[in-house]
Amino acid sequence: MKFTAMLTKRFKDTPADCQIASHIFMIRGGYMKNVGNGIYSLFPITKRITSKIERIMREEMDAIDGQEVLFPVAMPAGIWKESGRYDAIGSELVRFKDRGGNDMVLGMTHEEAAVQLARETADSYQQYPFMIYQIQTKFRDEPRARGGLIRVREFTMKDAYSFHTSKEDLEQYYMRCYKAYERIFARCGVPEVISVKSDSGMMGGKVAHEFMLCTPVGEDSLVVCRECDFRANMETAECVYDDLGGEMKELQKVATPEMKTIEDVCAFLSADTKRSVKAVVYQKETDDKYVVAFVRGDIEVNEVKLRNYLKSEIYPAQELEKAGLAAGFIGPRGLSSQVQAVYDISLKTCPDLICGANEEGYHLTGLNMDRDVGSVEYTDIGKAVQDGICPVCGKRSLSLTRGIEVGNIFQLGDKYTSSMGMKYIDKDGTLKTPIMGCYGIGVGRLAASVCEAHHDDYGPIWPMSIAPWQVQLCALRADDQEVRAFADKLYEDLQATGIEVLYDDRPVSAGVMFSDADLTGIPLRVVVSPKGLKNGTVEISKRDKSLLEKVEAGLALDSVKTLVKDMLAELGCDR
RNA sequence: CGAGGUGUAGCGCAGUUUGGUAGCGCGUUUGGUUCGGGACCAAAAGGCCGUGGGUUCAAAUCCCGUCACCUCGACCA
Q: For domain A252-374, which CATH number applies: 3.90.960.10, 3.10.20.30, 3.40.50.150, 3.50.50.60?
């Protein structure tokens, strides 16, 4: 590709809307153009990147016996009503009517379509297991798109669905897919992507992992052990607490006027917040019933865990007085029987606690859960903390970090196959319901994540495997006849050997040419200049600055060929 | 959905307090001089000041409505 023929435009100024590196560079470098909120058109440079990512995905999916299919973007709502998600999912699912007045949806994920495709086809156990996948557009009407391609409303996703006749078979295939995902990320140049245990949320199923690129700009909170393999999304991370020790004391009621926060009360009583009880009030969606979550004073409530425990949606509570709750003075002892209490396991660590007295202006000290509240069920509803105890190795080694979710895998079980009536005839002649797994990676988000992971102050540094072109050829002084002739020839020769070249043949100054090259982020650069040619050399360098050498002009072609091959091989992309 | 912010040329911004008919830098076009890290000189094109209404002799500027976008939070298969 000649630069002069390419539809592109670069910007010197950082656009006002951009916050994170990938977004800034992808706008400044002319990678994409915003069409609407969370909706982008991609320029050729980005399309080339995503096509390469897709190709790697295809190769790895095919390698684990996947079969590529294509589901529709717009589909009748009927199959979504069958699965129950038409009603269960909120306004992220775009619903509309066709001209006949029929309910339609835009696909935000394709479990329903996958089951619809397979259910009459795979009617014998002999056809199992199998996996089908597609790479296609999804539309999710996100409440808030952000960060360029990190979170958008319309995007391309590789989504795969596997079908099995036994849990063991699903688990085995799940591991194969897990390994394939590791290969995909490694080949795309981000081997640092880690997997974490995750909450399965609305997808259903029990076992799920997310693949995360750790970065401060990530949207998810992660809990990672510095000493062992334990890694989990904050939403699901189990908590373990040390026994704080101490003596049982007498229960006493103390006046704490106007002290509504844990900090106020503990400061007033000169106590550690760890020796207090925090009460957080929620309301359930279903019946408006009040729920009080009790956790140790220094711990925060993990609402995802609480939601899963209650098996109900929860919302911040309104109008506490109605339920007989004294805001700021709520405690486990003498709590109104109108409200449901949930006790966190952190409360078991201390025999002598401070808590609200359920009376405006009073707290209790010396509370002992067993003695003063009685035998209650404890459950894990706390948020993991920095330097907390690892639930696997037991060391005080937890670290909190943030990550971008670049992929996820779920063992779905029979959520969709049973609600949509998918059956096969087993060996023994009986009808059985198959079980499923599903596996997704967002293509554009992965591209942006690679940019987040690999960039410098001047632009992205694309890994050779997904770079828009493999080599950037810069003709410094394209108006110089000798330079022009040599660069033209090298361009043709490189292309003839199958190397992808972006040839900057513009008669612009070195500064412009180099800064544009930095923004394009092509991993290998060849500079042809009058100065160099005078000495019979051209300059070859790597975008990441790990190489800068002068090569005899006649050897440039071979040298580039070798470098491209080696750089691909490093990423496991030598074919 | 809650809180805050911004809409003026392709991009980045000033002008709004104190109404007077629109400006700067970058980019683009043309001519010339430069040339290894975003060069210089000269000329030029390009804007119903998000949008609807109101006040006024007069509105980018004041008032009311509305839409869009951004940030944080909520939510997120």
A: 3.90.960.10
- Concatenate the DSSP letters of all residues of A268-306 into one string: HTT--GGGBEEEEEEEETTT--EEEEEEETT--B-HHHH
**Phi and psi at residue A375, to the nearest 5°:** -80, 115
Please name the residues in contact with A82: beta carbons below 8 A apart, sequence gap of 6 or more.
Answer: A112, A419, A420, A421
Residues A7-37 pLDDT 10s: 999 999 888 888 899 999 999 999 998 888 8
Spell out the domain ranges in chain A: 18-72+108-219+400-452, 252-374, 459-570
The bases of strand B with some atom under 7 A from any protein CB are: 1, 10-13, 25-27, 34-39, 68-77
A505 within 8 A of A535, measured Cβ to Cβ: no
Nucleotide closest in space to A410 (CA vs C1'):
B77
Please report which helix (H) or strand (E) contains residue A524, including its range: strand A524-528
- Distance, angstroms, CA A13 to C1' B15? 21
Mean pLDDT of A277-297: 82
Distance from C-alpha of A7 to C-alpha of A23, rounded to nearest angstrom: 19
Which nucleotide is closest, CA of A507 to its C1'?
B35
From the list A541, A521, A544, the residue with the least C-alpha distance to A451 is: A521
State the architecture of A459-570 in CATH terms: 3-Layer(aba) Sandwich (3.40)
- Stated as kind and residue range, the H or E segment containing A444 is helix A443-453
Interatomic separation, CA of residue A43 and C1' of nucleotide B2, rounded (Å): 36
- Measured at the CA of A53, the angle between CA A416 and CA A14, to 5 degrees, comes to 110
pLDDT digits (tens, 9 = 90+) for A157-204: 999 999 999 999 999 999 999 999 999 999 999 999 999 988 766 555
| Nearest nucleotide to A474, CA against C1' atoms | B36
**pLDDT digits over A300-349, tens only?**
888 888 888 888 778 777 777 777 788 888 899 988 887 889 999 999 98
CATH architecture entry for A18-72+108-219+400-452: 2-Layer Sandwich (3.30)
